[in-house]
């Protein structure tokens, strides 16, 4: 690189220390075990979109009346999202125990965007298109809000530092499963849309959610396995399969509503305790 001397106006080339600028910071492109799990997350998200398209949207556009195929495809798409949540849970655990590559954080955000942003948003859009009454435009608004909420949440996660052990806002896997549960409950469309918008707001809010570690991680994994069993029973039209599905979806919604209440109550109690301590410190 030629540098112009401001006094003499002559050009000169600065001495090099023998290291090429492009080679000063070598970046290893070798994938770690955690990165492989993260790619599994992305694959599950893409396949969820695939089954939603081929098993629900295309048969509806072609006038197919076979409800069993749509039910099986919907269940497969949701199970794939649940599998993506399992991959997302374990890639963080493996990265902490072993190691992660320099690409780990970026891969995780991109994979989460596919599995917990695009896949559930597309699920909402397709169900709005195939539902009676043709709510395509309103469903498109709900789908866009879900997608943008996940995008904003992931971007904020990369930029904002919060206290250890908590997330700021509803985690995107939990939000995606909540959105899908709202759709599967088949509530009145206005109620469904409002619940989806409320979930999207929780994802970008400042409500604190605990990170799944230790017993909480085991509980979350157990809950995902139970959810897979419920979806399988519903897909194969097992006895009480519909009841199991509705129960699981309702519990997901209750969890999504209760956790923020507990978090808010805890913050209020902490604020009161801090005020009491401050008053006590001011007393002679």
Can you walk me through this structure?
With 284 residues, the chain is mainly α. The protein has one domain (30-258): Four Helix Bundle (Hemerythrin (Met), subunit A), CATH 1.20.120. The chain has helices at residues 33-61, 67-97, 104-130, 136-159, 172-184, 189-204, 215-235, 241-282; strands at residues 3-4, 11-12, 166-168, 208-210. It has a two-stranded antiparallel sheet with strand order 1-2. A two-stranded antiparallel ribbon has the order 3-4. It is globular and about 80 Å long. The termini are far apart.
Furnish the topology, listing elements before pairings:
Layout: E1 3-4, E2 11-12, H1 33-61, H2 67-97, H3 104-130, H4 136-159, E3 166-168, H5 172-184, H6 189-204, E4 208-210, H7 215-235, H8 241-282
Antiparallel strand pairs: 1-2, 3-4
List the keywords.
single chain; mainly alpha; Four Helix Bundle (Hemerythrin (Met), subunit A); two-stranded antiparallel ribbon
The CATH architecture would be: Up-down Bundle
Q: Structural class per helix/strand content?
A: mainly alpha
Number of self-contained structural domains? 1
Helix content: over 70%
Give the radius of gyration.
24 Å
Q: Count the helices. How many?
A: 8
CATH class: Mainly Alpha
CATH topology call = Four Helix Bundle (Hemerythrin (Met), subunit A)
The N- to C-terminal Cα distance equals 69 Å
Inertia-based shape: globular
Biggest β-sheet: count, sense, barrel? 2 strands, antiparallel
